[in-house]
Amino acid sequence: MIALLTRDLKLAVRAGGGFGLGLAFFLILVALVAFGVGPESALLARIAPGILWVGALLACLLSLDRIFALDREDGSLDLLATAPLPMEGIVTVKALAHWITTGLPLVVAAPLLALMLSLPGEGYLWLFLSLLLGTPALSVLGTFGAALTVGLKRGGLLMSLIVLPLYVPTLIFGAEVARRGAGGLSVEVPLLLLAGITCATLALLPFASAAVLRVNLR
Amino acid sequence: MKSIWEYANPKKFIETSQALLPWVTGLTVVCMVVGLVWGFFFTPDDYRQGSTVKIIYLHVPAALMAINGWFMMLLASLIWLIRRHHVSALAARAAAPIGAVMTIIALATGAIWGQPMWGTWWVWDPRLTSFLILFLFYLGYIALWAAVEDDDTAADLTSILCIVGSVFAVLSRYAVHFWNQGLHQGASVMRAGALAGDTEERVSNVFAAPLFLSMAGFVLFFVALVLLRTQTEIRARRMRALMARERRG
């Protein structure tokens, strides 16, 4: 499993576009929103948690098709399937690799971008924490979507249609934590619910992802 | 004793549903016509809502079927995954567009009712939002069926999507509730005492009977459409198989 993880990470770094692209997209998105709604900092500060959460979600979505598509093209996915590793393990490692290459940089970069959107001071910690807690769920859910559409020629758009509704609960609780944090309110309830969603998806969804991957490799 | 799984045989299913269909269709027509005509023309206007209250005879049954349609798909998907009956997978496929249309009807009638009552076509109310999300789930499900070429693969994938989607649809429903408390009134139709005592915030007797009739009508309508569409799917698949055999010569 560790070998697979390091392989995926190396591929992401060396093939280019793994770390950088998602981040660049995130930055552009935030800039575009600022252009769209105007430079008024009070307004930007108010919508900053939401923008950053939606931005992280879209940046995550954009890199999902890389999870399985390349491996399927060159046949290494079939090799992985016949390896002694259970399929559930493979999809979990894949999701973890996706999180490290996409989710983690977003989490680290988010406070910086929040600065550009003039988020109030109390909000940074909660924004960081909520993204740290929430992005693994996004990666795991995305892996499910990627596994579902891996056999399709043009699965990208279909995958967005399937994955985005699944992101709704995570987005709601995550953005709520960040918003309440920025407003100086108690964040306990949404934070716990967000953590609950992440734990549940981490525990249960790999079984579904592995099942659909098996069907697709039949 | 006959087992219910006999109807998993496509031939048997077609025979039985063929025999049932006229009855179901007839009952549907009776229930819907009586329920809707009674509801639209022979109930008094509500003292606050005027005649707009009558849209309830379309709105509530459609919403009912939008949710239960997905539930039926979930059951059919489980049966397919566990017992591998093709009819079951096809029934789930047949039900999806009907459920999606029911969701649209519920949203549209709700908007038409909401405009004079709440003064807005759309609010980000929990119920409205969860219905929108449900509609998106229907769309994803239908799109996945259409995108996968191999029938059995498509059935497997959509079944698993349906199960995962069910969990997330329920989760979204509660998440959305947390996110925004809404304008939409609670379910007042089935509330205890809805048919007897005169409590506040319930559908009163005058409106209840035609409402139940049109709800029954919508349920039967859904059943009839699913039976018919499943038959069509079975025949289409059989036709494809025959054509493929002929090509092979």
Name its key features:
heterodimer, A: 218 residues, B: 249 residues, mainly alpha, globular
Helix/strand layout:
The complex is a heterodimer of chains A (218) and B (249).
Chain A: H1 2-14, H2 19-37, H3 41-62, H4 69-73, H5 76-82, H6 87-116, H7 123-148, H8 156-166, H9 168-183, H10 188-216
Helix pairs in contact in A: 1-6, 2-3, 2-6, 3-6, 3-7, 3-9, 6-7, 6-10, 7-8, 7-9, 7-10, 9-10
Chain B: H1 10-41, H2 56-83, H3 86-118, H4 126-147, H5 151-179, H6 205-248
GO cellular component, one term (chain B): plasma membrane
Pfam families (chain B): Cytochrom_C_asm
Function (chain B): Required for the export of heme to the periplasm for the biogenesis of c-type cytochromes.
Summarize, please.
By secondary structure, chain A is mostly helical. Chain A is 82% helix and 0% strand. The mean pLDDT of chain A is 86.
Spatial extent as radius of gyration of chain B: 20 Å
| Largest beta-sheet characterization of chain B | none
Stretches of chain B where pLDDT falls below 50 for ≥5 residues? Answer: 190-201
Number of DSSP strand runs of chain A: 0
Instruction: Report the average pLDDT across residues of chain A.
Output: 86
Descriptive account of the structure:
The complex is a heterodimer of chains A (218) and B (249). Chain A is an all-alpha fold and 218 residues long. Chain A has one domain (2-216). Chain A has helices spanning 2-14, 19-37, 41-62, 69-73, 76-82, 87-116, 123-148, 156-166, 168-183, 188-216. The longest helix of chain A is centred in the middle third of the chain and has 30 residues, at 87-116. The two termini of chain A are 23 Å apart. Chain B has one domain. In chain B, α1 (10-41) packs antiparallel against α6 and α4 runs antiparallel to α5 (151-179). The radius of gyration of chain B is 20 Å and the shape is globular. Classes of the chains: A mainly alpha (218), B mainly alpha (249). The interface between A and B is medium-sized, with 28 and 24 residues. Chain B: Pfam families: Cytochrom_C_asm (PF01578). Chain B: The chain crosses the membrane at residues 20-43, 55-82, 94-116, 128-148, 155-176, 207-228.
